[in-house]
Design a protein that fits this description.
mainly alpha
Length: 402
Amino acid sequence: MTFLSPFTALCTVGFFARLSYALARSPVLPLFALYLGAGSEAIGFAVGISTVTGIFFKLPFGALSDVIGRKRTMLIGLVVFAVLPFAYLFIDNYQALIVVRFVHGLATAIYGPVSMAVVADVAGERRGELLSWFSSVTIIGNLLGAPLGGFILNTAPGGAGPAMGDFHIAYLASGFAGIMALVLALGVLNNDEKKEKHHSLKEAHARFVAGIKEVASDRRVIITSNMEGLQNMTVGALEAFLPIYAVTVAGLDALQAGLLWGVQVVATIISKPIMGNISDKYGRKPLIAAGLFLCAISFGAIPHLLNFYVLGIAAMVFGLGEALVTSSSAALIVDVCKEKHFGAAMGAFGTIFDIGHAAGPILAGFLIARLDYRLTFGIMAAMLLAALPVFVATIKINQAPA
């Protein structure tokens, strides 16, 4: 891959990695859990459990990348992307699904914060723009993965529901995409011109601890991460229950359920680079606030809708809101952190991000089992709206680091 720039090569690897993960996730995962006999709470837990992995591992691996090097750490995560999809072929019960999902979560837990730190290393003053471009290009994999997974599951003859063989095909496709990401990454590593500095064990430990202390003590990092964590809570809830709602309540098929998720991702992809450029020029805070508002309104409206096209409009608005938040939050955090601790900063950001992502489907499943879709989505939308004035009142971008 010597013909590609480092940034383009990183985006290409990210595309296949995210395609692999998306094929194994929505709508395939919640429908697979439903096929195995899981109820709403169990489905939410199955979707959220892989993100719980990130809660425990994103910060340590992000900080570790500051010490042992980004590329080595990235490779560990990409090995998980390539290997774990094939484990789904041996699953025949809900308990085994939970175990595999937890381990599969190591893929994004390791790769996610490290890849963002690599972009931050080379972006300079264009952090918002390049972080947004990187995110947009790589989540094209999410865009293709959701409808492709839905298409595979929708091939059952006579309108019957998906069979075990259909799920196996989806996970084989996921594994192939993961292998592509790993192979391409090995090409990047073999042609990497920069030699990463080696540190003694004592120096490595000191850098590791210093990075974690710095980012954990800055309230701007914590509060901004919490805003994206709350927004990502609604993303996780949609991943788990938009397919179930679309199929069981709105009367749509699996392909349409995947397309709804794809519409949301398209809106995010198209909007994100533009919003990242705007945030570089005019500031991060207003975009984050506007994005939280749009996500809350569209998320709360979804369970009141049944028409495929109207649901698509709501998903599009939600995707725009997500783009506003995510184009600025990671860049804002990098703005206030020292360069040598970008990995730790992205790890802390990713940990809180994953707490929200994991809590979303679990909380939604718990509430849906006791209430209904309308009340559940309304409660979670209200949480976003309640957080908005807290963010606006407490974040002062020009203040000295805490």
